[in-house]
Amino acid sequence: MDNIMLNKFYKDKVMITTHNIRENAAFVNSIVREILEYVHNLDRRFKKQPFYVGSFYTDLKVSRADEFDFCVILDVGSTLDWTHSPYPFYGIQRNKEIARTSTQVRCPPIENKSTQIPEHIQNSNSTRISEGLACHKCHRKMEVARTLTQQPCPPAGKTFVRIPGQIPNWNNERLNDGLACLTIDEYLISLNVKRWFKALVSEAFVIPRIRQYVNVDRLSDSPATTLMIKHPTTDEKISVDLAPLIEGHIPFSIAFGWPRPGARWPTCTKIQEIKTEGIHLVAKDPEYWSLSFVICEQKLLDGADLGGTCRKKSQRILKKLREMWCSQGSRQEFTSYHLKNILFWECEIHPDDSEWTDEKLSLRVASMCYSIIYHILRGNLPLYFHTRINLLEKKDWNALRKVVQNIFRFLKNPDQFLVPNML
Questions:
Q1: Quick one: how far is CA 88 from the chain centroid?
Q2: Are strands 214-216 and 237-250 parallel, antiparallel or unpaired?
Q3: Among the ranges given (25-39, 252-266, 302-316, 323-337), the one the predictor scored with the smallest mean pLDDT
Q4: Which helix (H) or strand (E) element contains residue 25?
Q5: Which of 383, 198, 176, 217 is nearest to 290 (CA)?
Q6: How is 289-331 classified by DSSP, letter by letter?
Q7: 414: domain CATH number?
Q8: Averaged over 139-149, what is the pLDDT?
Q9: What is the pLDDT of residues 163-177, one digit of tens each?
Q10: Number of domains observed in the structure of the chain
Q11: pLDDT grade, residue 113 (50/70/90)?
């Protein structure tokens, strides 16, 4: 492949028209503002002002501005920090409800930011250690608890939240009654948060304008409530994800493997900015909260091309190519999020702006293609900010193998993918 071919493909197939951007963004933002205002009036624990996240807001969207992502902040009273805590007695039942149990929940391995786990403890059958998140400023404990054990554990990056100091405030204000109850004992239950938030969003359909233009998808394994919004003038369908998020500002743990000693990308200033932001939590799994690096990723991408480089351009080209590499109409085993992490690793391996000039566009695209192949064949793509998380875990190998085959086809004959009517 050559740069001329890639630049033409970028111009014809990847770039979004300015008119499409402005019109869709303005309409979506007005709808979301109205919904979140209504949700906040029903339950003030959900803030009105969301985080604007996703590919549209990081300049990585391709072709059309037809997908928008927002994180809706669940106010738990303060930021979080790692601390020791007991672990809870709750679990998911056959009816897919979360309820109290007589046995303690199994928790992820400890990830302490200041200490390494001795090998003899890691291999002990009897040792149980729990660590969580606590607020030091207001003396209210808000904890993410963890257990160290050889029994089967959830994947890395999962945890649970304990907020004993905040629950009495919610109870006193009758915010945590009935269906609005988000807790069991002192623990904040992710499934309860997802269900209650979706119920509140559904309530917003009493507003005529919302009812006219919006449909809500069913609850899924995704952290988000998905809305399908019909544009009033074009009838275009726009997908909007609203995901509840705890703004935890949790410090990075040494066990995450980031930042890596000796790495020359990102800059020290950017690393400090990301560390100051810290990690947040999203409600993905029924029992556990998932560590979220969405704002960290946004900050990492912010200013990535200030030197006139092609980092985002190469990523957008790969995202468009991914649509051709992956089978349409089926579950996407290789996603845009995988590509984003491929980009981050490529930037760390090739840190200099001189390696990301427009003249090196085809080189970087090819390099990332080989990186995708390498990680898929190994069966392991580590999340950039937490290398113990394998983004390819539990993915369908047959689907990933087809992706690899299509990438090899692309590398052998790029015209077949880059030139119109060649497929």
A1: 25
A2: unpaired
A3: 323-337
A4: helix 18-42
A5: 383
A6: EEEE-HHHHHHHHTTTTTTS--HHHHHHHHHHHHHHHSPTTS-
A7: 1.10.1410.40
A8: 40
A9: 888 999 999 999 999
A10: 2
A11: very low
Q: Do residues 296 and 302 lie in contact, with contact meaning Cβ atoms separated by under 8 Å?
A: no
Q: How far is CA 247 from the centre of its chain?
A: 13
Give the pLDDT confidence score for residue 420 in this predicted structure: 72
Give the torsion sign (CA, 176, 177, 178, 183): positive
Tokens 């290789």 correspond to 334
What is the C-alpha to C-alpha distance for residues 174 and 168, in angstroms, rounded to an integer?
Answer: 10
| pLDDT(129) > 60 | no
Q: Calculate what percentage of the chain has a pLDDT beyond 70.
A: 79
CA angle 282, 287, 293 (to 5 degrees): 20
CA dist 159 and 285 (Å) reads: 10
DSSP label at residue 261: T
Rounded to 5 degrees, what angle do the CA atoms 84, 85, 90 make? Answer: 145
pTM: 0.84
Q: Is residue 359 part of a domain?
A: yes
Pick the last residue of a domain from 168, 188, 208: 188
8 Å CB contact between 73 and 123:
no
The whole domain housing 128 covers 82-188
Dig out the tokens for 286 from the structure.
């029924």
93: in domain:
yes
Residue-wise pLDDT for 179-228, tens only, equals 999 998 888 999 999 999 999 999 998 899 898 889 876 655 567 889 99
Residue 213 lies in a domain: no
Last residue of a domain, one of 188, 223, 238: 188
Quote the tokens at residue 411. Answer: 């590398």
What phi, psi does 313 have (nearest 5°)? Answer: -60, -45
In a domain, 279, yes or no: no
Give the C-alpha separation, 191 to 408, whole Å: 41
Between the CA of residue 86 and those of 192, 250, 279, what are the distances in Å? 21, 19, 22
Cα separations (Å) of 51 from 54, 82, 158, 162, 247?
10, 24, 22, 24, 10
Phi, psi of 106, deg, nearest 5: -85, 130
Q: Report the alpha-carbon distance of residue 305 to residue 210 in Å, rounded.
A: 38
What is the tens place of the pLDDT at every residue in 31-81? 999 999 999 999 999 999 999 998 888 888 887 888 899 999 999 988 777
What per-residue confidence (pLDDT) applies to 55?
A: 86
Positive or negative, the CA dihedral 63, 66, 67, 72 is: positive
